[in-house]
Amino acid sequence: MNMPSGQNDPNANPCIRNCCLDQQDICLGCFRHLDEILAWRAMSDVERQACFARMAQRKAESHARRNGLK
């Protein structure tokens, strides 16, 4: 699964400049929650890696819903 550039660099911001929040405050561009976006700069490397994992899960779930798999 392709993730925003930076998943191997915990200091890189995963924003892809395609910002639009859904009803749960998840960005449809990078799949971060609004709280994660706001906290990004203060997160530790471990917290950012956990965030990347949540983003990947959200992206997979979003694609599955769009393709009628969920």
Describe the structure.
Helices cover 40% and strands 0% of the residues. The protein has 70 residues and is mainly α. It is globular, with a radius of gyration of 12 Å. The protein starts with 33 loop residues before the first helix and ends with a helix. 16% of the residues are buried. Mean pLDDT is 88; it is low at 1-5.
- According to DSSP, the number of beta strands is 0
Describe the largest sheet.
Answer: none
Give the proportion of residues in helices.
40-55%
- Radius of gyration equals 12 Å
At a glance:
With about 70 residues, the chain is mainly alpha-helical. It has helices at about 35-40, 45-65. The chain starts with about 35 loop residues before the first helix and ends with a helix.
Task: Indicate the topology.
Elements lengths: L33 H6 L5 H22 L4
Organism: Shewanella septentrionalis
Protein name: DUF1289 domain-containing protein
InterPro entries: DUF1289
Features:
globular, mainly alpha, 0% strand
